[in-house]
Amino acid sequence: MSAFGSGLSALAIGAHPDDVEFGCFGSLQRFDTRRIVVMSAGEAGGPQEQRRAEADEAAGAIDAELTVLGLADTQLSVPAVIDEITAAIERTNPDVIFTLSALDTHQDHAAVGRAALVALRRFRGLVFAYPSPSLAPANFAPQTFLEVDEASQAKKMLALDAHRSQAHRHYLGTDYLETVSRYWAHQAGAGFEWCEPFELVRWTAGRE
């Protein structure tokens, strides 16, 4: 795996526990400092305490700092998420940000994506949108493909396995996850075995 991210910090933003794990946990491991902010505890999908504990276990699999906020699951509002993203940026000062897509068909995912467009309009750095199971293929056109090496893939799978309350979800099945990762590796056309795809949302850089 290349040295992209070496010495840099990344912030990954999710709506619920398991969003970030699914979309960018392989790539997040490229960074020396890894932080995750999740807007809700995902209580609509299981007991809040359990989901928070699962998210904490998953973050520990890749040595990431985790913050799970208390916004209401399935009811995320764009203004509230804008405020939380802004606060997270001020607190963490990341070099690269991973977020959900504004075109996602899940209302909470879309709220995070739309809020990110506003909250990050003055952010100087890379902003990537990662896919979720509810993002329709027609609404996702990745231009960036990051290889996930064997060790990072294993840790990603371990992190996803931590979400035991969601084991019934088809998109957390091992076969599905392996198929998705290998599909995007094939699309990258670079001989990768595993890969994560991203849309480049924004890249603002000053002169060296």
Task: Name the descriptors.
alpha/beta; 7-stranded mixed beta sheet; 18% strand; Rossmann fold
What does this protein look like?
With 208 residues, the chain is an alpha/beta fold. The chain has a single domain, classed as 3-Layer(aba) Sandwich (Rossmann fold), CATH 3.40.50. It has 6 helices and 7 strands; from the N terminus they run βαβαβαβαββααβ. Strands 3-2-1-4-5-7-6 form a 7-stranded mixed beta sheet, sandwiched between helices. Helix 1 runs antiparallel to helix 5 (150-161). The radius of gyration is 16 Å and the shape is globular.
Low-confidence stretches: none
> Terminal Cα separation, in Å?
26 Å
Helix content: 25-40%
User: Averaged pLDDT, please?
Assistant: 95
- In one word, what is the shape? globular
Topology:
Elements lengths: L8 E6 L4 H10 L4 E6 L9 H14 L3 E4 L9 H15 L3 E4 L7 H13 L6 E4 L14 E4 L2 H12 L12 H15 L6 E9 L5
Parallel strand pairs: 1-2, 1-4, 2-3, 4-5
Antiparallel strand pairs: 5-7, 6-7
Helix pairs in contact: 1-5, 2-5, 3-4
Outline of this structure?
The chain is globular, with a radius of gyration of 16 Å.
